[in-house]
Structures are given as C-alpha cells and as structure tokens.
C-alpha cells in the first residue's frame, strides 16, 4: 500500500527518496497516489529525506511539483531548503537544472 508506514512513519515514498536517487520510482509512486506531503514521526517529508541523502534528481523532481511547499518545517525547525544546506554537495541539490 502506498499509504502504509514503517515503524518510523516512513511511507514507500520516503524510502524511495533515499540514497538510490531514483526519481523515476518517485515519479511512479506519486502518479499512483503517494503523498509528497506525507510526514514521518519526526515530521520529515519525502523532500527532507531527499535532501538529507543528497538525492539530487529526486530533490529536483519534488521541487518542481507545482503545489509542493518547499518551506515546510519539521520538528527540528529546519526547512527543506535549509536542511539541504547542511548536506553533502548541498550547493547542487537545488540547482535550476536537473542533475545528470
């Protein structure tokens, strides 16, 4: 189920936004009903996960969703964009062009 969660509150979309950086899988999940706004037990969204793992293609894809709010805060008071500033290769996580 796309709405299922693990013990940390992660959905399949959260898991797909990790280090594999598989934006095609993320796109597929969203097209089939996965919620890009879903929050885990720590209030992290899939975009938080993508930035945390420097999943550049996934972060770019999520950022380009028309209605995705990239300034939502989690419990640690980091915005999705602010959190990316502390991640590896953060300067390229939110480039204007998709990474190759």
Automatic annotation (TrEMBL):
ANK repeat copies, ranges? 8-41
Traced from the root, the source organism's taxonomic lineage reads: Eukaryota, Metazoa, Spiralia, Gnathifera, Rotifera
Positions with biased composition (Acidic residues)? 68-78
Keyword terms, alphabetized:
ANK repeat, Repeat
User: Has keyword Repeat?
Assistant: yes
Organism of origin is Rotaria socialis
Segment Disordered: which positions?
Answer: 68-100
The protein's name in its UniProt record: Uncharacterized protein
> Which Pfam families has this protein been placed in?
Ank_2 (PF12796)
């Amino acid at each position: 189920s796309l709405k299922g969660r693990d013990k940390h509150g992660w959905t399949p979309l959260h898991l797909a936004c990790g280090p594999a950086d598989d934006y095609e899988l993320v796109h597929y999940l969203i097209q089939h009903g996965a919620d890009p706004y879903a929050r885990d037990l720590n209030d992290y969204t899939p975009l938080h996960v993508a930035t945390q793992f420097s999943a550049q293609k996934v972060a770019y894809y999520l950022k380009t969703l028309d209605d995705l709010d990239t300034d939502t805060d989690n419990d640690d008071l980091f915005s999705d964009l602010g959190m990316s500033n502390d991640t590896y290769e953060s300067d390229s996580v939110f480039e204007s062009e998709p990474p190759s």
